[in-house]
Design goal:
894 residues, alpha/beta, 6-stranded mixed β-sheet, globular, binds beta-D-glucopyranose
């Protein structure tokens, strides 16, 4: 048969049909026709409409089919269409059966408007714990259950895609959105994200893992050019995304606001097409962050399929570029196809009859369980916790005891029906929270808030802290006489659009907070009663200067709407804490390797940026700025452990009401061949049931590349072990776990040599070690050369590897012969000191020390029972605050 002839005849008859009877040529319908055919039937304008969201951001809404103007064009929760308060919607093309899909935030739960005009119903969603807390559970099964509950709320409220999880690396503790993210470590990040994605998507809705990539600061976030090496990108900043993509195939990925090595993330074909789709095999669609990038045509060409929230000008630019031959329509078609492929999977397209009535009670129970699992017990001297059974009355100090933060601000916030405060949680657990003290705080908080201006209706919300109430010493003493125990809650909040600062009231305590902690602890301890500090924050903060004061410290993070119940569960002992830090708590902010470069600097002489129409505060384009990641791969514990920097609480750290023994570390083979199974027995050696997080670190030989002292390559959480019970945990190491990214080869390479396996309860509490050999170098995977920096980056280089670390010694009590190295009083009146022991070993040591110094207030400050990590050569070091002069300072055994 003459093929050309048939085609011509067919085409001719189609044209004829269309001309004679347009109604008969029914266009293909999405869901029935092949997606390719639907795209082929779309006009250029329809394609451009599909790849640009319906608006509802800060621009006026487009006059597109079905679009409805959001009142006032608000920013967050802008859309009023379909699901009010969702973040955005995609365009419908009714002619082709293409419906709109609804996208809504965020990482701690669904963010939609809780009420609607002229509607008596409410639409509350569950506020789950924030990302930092979820990661601290180290429990992927639990995180998947949280995801399942969130996914169900999407389904029942008519939302198709959750704009979460957020999985940027905690490069610096001051990033304002760290609370939304998981960890400083890419393995924890990737595993948590994969679990969350799988949980959410089990409900038949989608996720959007974000913000892809290297979005580690909020300052100037939409104009920040991040200079970062290929190795740091691959090993640290992309790795979590890779794991999430390979293990969970999320429906969508959201590109970040920043530029990477000179190109906006959504405009980077290297990022979106070469790495994400090429190297990792991502099958879903990619969307911009809200208003991200500058050039819509470059975004389409990069393979960033959907531009959100969308402006008419972006659509017009795409149409024009195709018409003028600057944009190949095939690229636009591919983007449209990818969007449609997932649109048909969404519950809206499928016509799911959502109830608007998810089971909020059941989800609150999941939120409570997760919150308690991720809280981290940082200190528990003299077994102060759980509260003794005879404890009846509690004096609760600190604003956040009464107004406990459930989560951070911005798009990661949730409109929940309630938040259980710490005080309410304790009351419901049967404790008498001193009512008079409660009334003092209630009156204070009410008055302060009454005098404040209302938050602006548009723009990013910002948390303005309320100063701690000054509680006079007399009142503290009375409380110490009246109550059985004291709790001081230190609260911090942060959020989108703004970074935190290394200042008092943010990363550090204010003078008022310090006084409160000091007064309460000394008054209660003087009466033989315990004082507990609860830290209610989304990110890390300084603890080293005051942690010696309380008997116990519970890092409660921001536990979602059930925070107070979960805190009470831990304090009462109903739940044995099992959370561990997935992010390091440093001694001093300046110890952070990125402290000097964070959060970047404005480019001198750069022109004022043009502003899109109608931009509210918080979304104005900042001046072009830049940041260089000179810390390279040395982020978090990779830095502290390799460079021998002391930390306040190391990565992986967390206490329990019981203790665990590790034994029988076994490797499946002495030499590595494709994979190796590591197993270890973890035994509950204490008197109460509990769970332990065991961590597998690997020290790799360093041949061509420098290597961190150790890197996390696996983790596992035991089930609830009864006293005396043992569980064998297995970890699988594959070739990838041994490899580092060698930019010279653009490949993951495992060097030949000996690999040391370190099984620990934290990154600095290694309990069992073993080693295996890799006989020859392995090139594990070649990757495309992409995102190459335009100029070379002078990255941190570690000191030459030290001799193999000495075997772990049993904790040793210091003796009076140990010498106190000359204490130093810092400008902030903090005294730091070290106690040197001649026989230096790397030991974890908790001793009944008393360190005392004459405080600036003329009182003798005392610290007891330090639990300290000691670098080789020192047995103990610590700090006291505030001390008048070094001469007044002494440190002795009681
Ligand atoms: C945030 C995203 C969020 C989006 C929609 C942006 O400002 O960076 O994380 O998903 O808004 O609310």
């Amino acid at each position: 048969m003459n093929f050309r002839f048939v085609v011509t005849v067919l085409a001719a008859s189609v044209t004829a049909l269309a001309a004679e009877a347009p109604a008969a040529a029914a266009p293909p319908q999405l869901g029935r026709a092949k997606i390719k055919d639907v795209v082929a039937a779309m006009t250029l304008e329809e394609k451009a409409a599909l790849v640009v969201g319906e608006g509802g951001g800060f621009g006026p809404p487009p006059a597109a089919p079905g679009a409805v103007a959001p009142p006032g064009g608000g920013v967050l929760g802008a859309t009023q269409r379909l699901v009010p308060g969702a973040a955005g919607t995609t365009h419908a093309v009714a002619r082709l059966g293409i419906t709109s899909s609804v996208l809504a935030d965020g990482p701690a739960g669904l963010r939609i408007s809780p009420t609607r005009p002229n509607d008596p119903n409410t639409y509350y969603a569950t506020a789950f714990p924030v990302g930092t807390l979820l990661a601290s559970t180290w429990d992927t099964e639990l995180v998947a259950r949280v995801g399942k509950a969130i996914g169900n709320e999407l389904l029942e409220y008519g939302v198709d895609v959750l704009l979460a999880p957020g999985l940027n690396i905690h490069r610096n503790p001051l990033c304002g959105r760290n609370f939304e993210y998981y960890s400083e470590d890419p393995l924890v990040t990737g595993k948590m994200a994969a679990a969350m994605v799988n949980g959410v998507e089990s409900q038949g809705v989608g996720t959007s893992i974000k913000h892809f990539a290297a979005n580690n600061a909020e300052t100037a976030r939409t104009a920040l050019d991040t200079h970062v090496s290929e190795r740091a990108l691959r090993e640290i900043y992309l790795e979590g995304f890779r794991i999430a993509v390979e293990e969970a195939q999320p429906w969508t990925v959201m590109t970040s606001y920043n530029l990477i090595n000179g190109t906006y993330a959504p405009e980077s074909r290297d990022l979106v097409t070469t790495i994400l789709r090429g190297d990792w095999g991502f099958k879903g669609y990619v969307m911009t962050d809200w208003g991200g990038g500058r050039n819509p045509v470059a975004q389409v060409a990069a393979g960033n399929d959907l531009i959100m929230p969308g402006r008419p000008a972006q659509r017009d630019a795409i149409v024009k570029a195709v018409q003028e031959g600057r944009l190949d329509v095939k690229l636009l078609d591919a983007n449209a196809e990818r969007i449609l492929k997932l649109l048909v999977e969404g519950p809206r397209f499928k016509g799911y009859k959502f109830s608007n009535k998810p089971d909020l009670e059941a989800h609150a129970a999941v939120a409570r369980e997760a919150a308690a699992e991720g809280m981290v017990l940082l200190k528990n001297a003299g077994a102060a916790l759980p509260l003794a059974t005879e404890t009846k009355s509690v004096a609760a100090f600190g604003n956040a005891s009464y107004e406990t933060f459930s989560g951070g601000t911005g798009s990661g916030d949730v409109n929940e029906a309630y938040t259980v405060s710490l005080a309410q949680g304790l009351e419901r657990a049967g404790y008498a929270v001193n009512a008079d003290l409660k009334a003092v705080y209630a009156g204070y908080l009410k008055l302060v808030k009454a005098g404040r201006p209302a938050a602006p209706a548009r723009g990013l919300p910002r948390y303005v802290p309320i100063a701690e109430l000054e509680i006079p010493a007399d009142l503290v003493s009375s409380m110490a006489a009246l109550a059985d125990v004291a709790i001081v809650t230190v609260g911090r909040n942060a959020g989108e659009g703004r970074d935190r600062t290394n200042t008092e009231g943010d990363f550090r305590l204010t003078e008022g907070e310090r006084r409160l902690v000091q007064r309460v602890c000394s008054a209660f301890q003087a009466k033989g009663k315990k004082a507990v500090v609860v830290v209610n924050t989304g990110g890390s903060m300084e603890t080293a200067s005051w942690r010696d004061l309380p008997d116990a410290i519970l890092l409660a993070w921001q536990g979602g709407q059930e925070a107070g119940h979960a805190i009470a569960d831990i304090l009462s002992g109903k739940v044995n804490p099992s959370g561990k830090l997935a992010t390091t708590f440093v001694v001093d902010y300046m110890d952070v390797p990125s402290a000097k470069s964070f959060p970047g600097t404005e480019i001198p002489g750069a022109p004022e940026p043009e502003q899109p129409p109608n931009v509210p505060p918080g979304f104005r384009r900042p001046k072009p700025s830049t940041i260089t990641y000179e810390d390279g791969i040395y982020v978090g514990y990779r830095y502290y452990d390799t460079f021998g920097v002391k930390t306040a609480y190391e990565f992986g750290y967390g206490l329990s009401y019981t203790s665990f023994d590790y034994a029988n570390l076994k490797l499946s083979a002495p030499r590595f061949d494709r994979k190796l199974v590591v197993s270890v027995d973890v035994k509950n050696a204490g008197r109460v049931a509990g769970r332990e997080v065991a961590q597998l670190y690997l020290s790799a030989p360093s041949k061509s590349l420098d290597k961190p002292a150790k890197e996390l390559k696996g983790f596992a959480k035991t089930k609830r072990l009864a006293p005396g019970e043992t569980q064998t945990l297995d970890f699988v190491l594959d070739a990838r776990s041994l490899a580092s990214f060698d930019p010279a080869l653009s490949a993951w390479v495992a060097d030949a040599g000996r690999y040391e396996v370190k099984l620990g309860a934290s990154s600095r509490d290694i309990r069992q070690t073993a080693s295996f050999a890799l006989d020859r170098q392995l090139v594990v995977k070649k990757e495309a050369r992409a995102l190459v920096p335009k100029q070379s980056i002078a990255e941190l280089k570690p000191p030459a590897r030290q001799q193999a670390a000495p075997a772990r010694a049993e904790p040793r009590q210091p003796t009076p012969n140990d010498t106190l190295q000359s204490p130093e009083v810092l400008p902030d009146k903090r005294v730091t000191f070290r106690i040197y022991a001649p026989k230096a070993t790397e030991v974890s040591l908790s001793g009944d020390w008393v360190a005392r110094g004459l405080g600036t207030d003329g009182h003798l400050n005392e610290m007891r029972r330090m639990h300290v990590y000691t670098p080789p050569g020192y047995d103990a070091s610590g700090s006291a605050y505030p001390v008048e002069d070094a001469a007044s300072f002494e440190c002795r055994l009681p």
